[in-house]
Structures are given as C-alpha cells and as structure tokens.
Design goal:
The protein has about 575 residues and is an all-alpha fold. It has a domain at about 25-250. Helix content is about 65%, strand content about 0%. It is built from 20 helices and four strands. The strands form two sheets. Strands 1-2 form a two-stranded antiparallel ribbon. A two-stranded antiparallel sheet has the order 3-4. A hairpin with a 2-residue loop joins strand 3 (about 405) and strand 4. Helix 4 runs parallel beside helix 18.
C-alpha cells in the first residue's frame, strides 16, 4: 500500500461526501413536487407524459397498487427486451449483421437488465446490435434505475407519514426519477465521456490494418450514452466485453474517477433524501455512516490483500503487489477501490478482473454483495435494503431493554419484523441454493475453469452477483450455457422482486401507523451507538449466513496458498 494510493481513495470519498447534500436536497424537491431550476424546461414534458399514460399526478396509491404497477411495468420490459433480441437480425441499426440471440441467453439478458443487474453471458460488441444496445439495454438501464428510486421513495414515505393508506404514485415517481434526475445527469456525463474519447456513433465498425499487415475490426458504437446511465444507475454491464477496462469505455484516470463517483452519487444522496423527508437529516447521516464504515473496512482489506500480492510468492521472499488482471493505467489502488465500489453499490461494472484478485481481495466484493446490497447499494435498492436491516436492529435493541421497539416514532411490531426477515432470507436462499446445485451438477461443473476452492468461489460469486443484482463475475466461469442462463435469470428475478414486495408491505404498514412522541426510554437512532448496532447486526447476520460458504471458497484458497499449495 502506498501513500499515493490512499490519497486517491480519500479524494474519492471526499468527492462523494460533497455531493450528498446538494444532490439530496435537489432530489427531495423533485419528489415532493416542488419547483426546481429545471422545472421551466421539463414540467411541460412531465405533464404530457402523465396525460399520455392516463395518470393523475395528485392521485396516490395503496402499497399493493403501487407494487402491481411496478410489476406490470417490469414484466412488459422483460417481454419487449426479449423480443428485440430475438428479432435483432430483422431490425435496423445492425451494421455488423448480428444474428438473433439464443432464446436462453435472451431470457437471461432481459431478466438481468430489467432487474438492474446487467449480468452479461455474452460479449456486447459481438452479440448485440446498435438498436438492441440503445432501445433495449440503455432504455432498461434508465427504467430499472428509476424503478429502484421510486420504491425507495415509497418506503421513505412509509416512515415519514402517519395514519395514511397511500405511499405515493409509482408512475409519478418513475417519471420524475427519469426526467429530473437520471436524464439531465446522463446528458452531462455523455458529453463528458465523448470529450474524454469515448465513442458515440451509429457508423459501422472500423476496419484497420495493423503494422504487420493484418486486418482488424475495431468495434465502436453508441458507447458514451450507455456508459453514462450504466454507472449513474448502478446498472453495470458494458458495451464491450472488457467493460471499464476497455480504453473506449474508460479512456483515462479522470474518466475512471468520474465513473466511480457517479456509481455512488445517487445511492449516497438518497440517505439525505431520507433524512429530509422524515424531518431529521441526522437520521440520514447515521445510515450513511453505517454504510461508510462497511465500505472503508472493505477497501482496507481489498487494498491490503492486492498490495501484498500472492501469499505464496511473499513466503518465498518475492514481494510485490498483485497486478494480474489489472490495467497498468489504474494500478492496484484504483483497481481495488473500483472493485469495492462496484460491488458495494450493486453496479457490476469492472476495470479489473475479479477472478484474478487474490483470495482475500476477491472475497471482499463477494462479501459486499452477500451483506444484502446495503453498502450504498443499487440506486434506491441500497436504501430500502439497509432500512430492512434498520428494522431488525431496532427490534434487537428493543429485546435488549424489554421495550417495544420504535423508529422515528413508529412502533416496530411483528408484521414489520416478519416482512424484514422474509426480505433478508430470500437472498441466501437463491445464492446458496443455486450454488449447492451448481457444484454437484455435471453440466454446471463443466463451466468451471479452475479446480479446488477457487472453482467453488466462481460458482458462488456468480449466484451471489446475480441475486444481489450486481452483475459482475469471476471471469473463469463460462456462464453462457443453458443451465447458467436459466438459473441466473431466475436468481436475478428472485433477488429483485422477492425483496421488493415485503419491503413495500413494510412501507404500507408503517404509513398507516400513528407517530408516538419520543420519551426518556426512546432509543436514539441518530448517534454512534445506533450506527454501531446497525453495522453489528449487518455483519453478524451476514457472517452467520455466509461464513461456511466463504470458508469453502476464498478462505480455504488463502490458507492453501499460505501452506504452499497451488491449483
């Protein structure tokens, strides 16, 4: 580890921190229907969209209607994206003449992009036409991100309102998220990326002749526009197979820095939105502090492990960091930071190959996802994910003092705790359940490139990434098979919607409750004690659930390397 590396990490943390308050304040005004500096430009379009959809922006929905609208919208998204892929060969904007996508792969991709996962069992530049990239994948990047933001707002309203039966209007929240937040920021980011050298064109792939006289096809396309939303919306994926390690997607250190900041920007700012809407910004800062503690701990371990390098080589006196699978342009510090950022925020974009990380360095991205998408998390999903843990933490605090747990004046009762536990348990059910089948099924085992514990980690990482709606992968696993396309597609749907439904049930239940005035026995939830309790609950639940699996994978691999065994 170097001083320069830590300075870069601190600059990143400072930049994210500086964005929280202004972006959070702006988003709060947007969702409360207040006038913003963009209203004069966007308000006519907003009204037109409501008229076109037949929606009254002043009419709110019960949580069941809110969820029903969300599910119908996402089902339509899956069907449309699947159809675009299957009909690709007959549609325009296909200069490379791409054939129709295989049915199983098309299902996997459609489910993945609609759920904000963007798991890719294909190389973008050799599989998807320009039309599918733009009208299919990029559109779903906006729609899935806006869906997550809308759901987070509905849960916030559950905490902030009292004695009401509604949690907002899904269609209004969806439109405002897209029109006022995602679209303006993505236009600016797209212009910035084009300025840095990212392609944005509908021209055919470029044919070049190398110095040796060989002919080479250089893939280009509408890259910058997809890059902007894939980072801002924590979608991940990539126009190119090499993702953000490709110079056309990530030209230099400045673009790399901006990409990391935008991955965290909205997720971190939503904690401020939460604080503002419940009437106490300290509540939002406390949640962000818990996220920051877990994030910094992950950065320290990952950076230390990669800077130390292979323990087997270190035991032989061959010191030096692990540069395998990393871009020389970014080095160990920024590669480690990017890996932690992208898995803490459920983004999935990568600028280094996680499969080439050391055992402990690769374990941190895995743990980030297994903790339940709560360390900033996907846009919206991270906030409602950590609020589920907040309910469990408050319940634990109530048990310790023998008092009915309360949070923000709302009594946390059996229904809320049951829904919270249901939301938490569905993740390990898919992560560990599919992994258990995958490591004994012959057709699944055939996709593993490495033997021993690392091969186990490849399978565990795949289903963890899918269920956590992250989308990054250990590159050693061949996921483009019938088994993995179908099961990963199912896992992404489980990880998205089996969490959303109980979370929205919590929102509806809390919104209907009365606010109880604070008393001398009320547990303060805006200080260090609460932050420590919340972090402790997250770590303990994650440890009890996933430590046995981690012991079979990255921990076992590390101990084998220390003992001198390689695979």
């Amino acid at each position: 580890m170097t001083f320069n590396g830590w300075i870069q990490i601190l600059i990143f943390c400072g930049a994210v921190g500086l964005l929280v308050t202004p972006l959070g304040g702006y988003m709060t005004r947007v969702y409360q229907g207040e006038r913003t500096f963009l209203s004069f430009l966007l308000r006519p379009s907003e009204r037109a969209l409501y008229r076109l959809a037949g929606t009254d922006e002043n009419e709110e929905q019960h949580w069941t209607a809110y969820v029903a609208g969300m599910l119908m919208f996402n089902l339509l998204g899956v069907l449309l994206l699947y159809a675009l892929q299957r009909l690709q060969a007959h549609l325009p904007f296909n200069p490379a003449g791409m054939d129709a996508v295989d049915p199983a792969l098309a299902f996997n991709t459609a489910a993945s992009f609609v759920t904000n996962t963007n798991w890719q069992n294909y190389s973008g530049e050799t599989t998807m036409s320009y039309l599918v990239q733009m009208a299919g994948l990029t559109v779903q990047n906006f729609a899935s991100a806006a869906t997550g933001m809308a759901l987070a707002l509905a849960l916030i309203r559950g905490f902030s309102r009292a004695s009401v039966k509604t949690v907002g209007n899904f269609w209004v929240d969806l439109v405002r998220s897209t029109l006022y937040v995602l679209l303006p920021l993505c236009i600016l980011l797209t212009l910035f990326y084009v300025f840095r050298g990212v392609p944005q064109t509908l021209a055919a792939y470029v044919q070049a002749t190398t110095l040796e006289g060989a002919h080479q096809t250089i893939a280009v396309g509408p890259v910058a526009s997809q890059l902007a939303i894939k980072m801002l919306g924590t979608n991940g994926g990539g126009f190119f197979n090499a993702n953000s390690a490709h110079p056309f997607e990530n030209p230099d250190a400045l673009s790399n820095f901006v990409q990391m900041v935008t991955i965290f920007a909205i997720g971190a700012a939503l904690t401020n939105v939460f604080g503002r809407m419940v009437g106490d910004q300290r509540q939002g800062w406390a949640i962000l502090a818990a996220m920051a503690v877990l994030f910094i701990a992950g950065v320290i371990v990952a950076y230390w492990a990669e800077a130390r390098g292979n323990p087997l080589l270190a035991s032989l006196g061959l010191e030096g960091g692990n540069m395998e699978g990393k871009e020389v342009r970014f080095g160990i510090a920024l590669s480690s930071l990017f890996a932690v950022v992208t898995t803490a925020a459920s983004c999935g974009a990568v600028n280094a190959m996680h499969d080439s990380f050391t055992a402990l360095g690769g374990m941190i991205p895995l743990v980030n996802m297994q903790l339940g998408e709560v360390i900033v998390g996907g846009v919206g999903a991270g906030l409602y994910g950590i609020l589920v843990f907040v309910i469990v933490a408050i319940f634990v605090a109530g048990l310790m003092v023998g008092r009915t747990p309360e949070y923000l004046g709302k009594k946390i009762e059996a229904k809320e705790v049951k829904m919270a536990m249901l939301a938490m348990l569905c993740l390990p059910m898919a992560m560990l359940g599919f992994t258990a089948i995958g490591i004994v099924l012959p057709s699944a085992l055939a996709s593993i490139a490495n033997p021993g514990p690392h091969g186990f980690s490849e399978v565990l990482y795949a289903y963890t990434s899918a269920t956590a709606n992250n989308g990054s992968a250990f590159a050693g696993l061949n996921g483009n098979t019938l088994w993995y396309n179908l099961t990963i597609g199912i896992a992404v749907l489980m990880g998205r919607f089996l969490v959303i439904v109980p979370a929205m049930a919590i929102a509806g239940s809390l919104a209907a409750k009365k606010i109880v005035p604070a008393s001398a026995g009320t547990f303060p939830t805006d200080g260090t004690l609460f932050v420590g309790l919340l972090v402790g609950v997250i770590v303990i639940v994650g440890g009890l659930t996933f430590l046995p699996a981690l012991a079979l994978g990255p921990i076992a691999e590390h101990l084998e390397l220390v003992a001198g065994k390689v695979f």
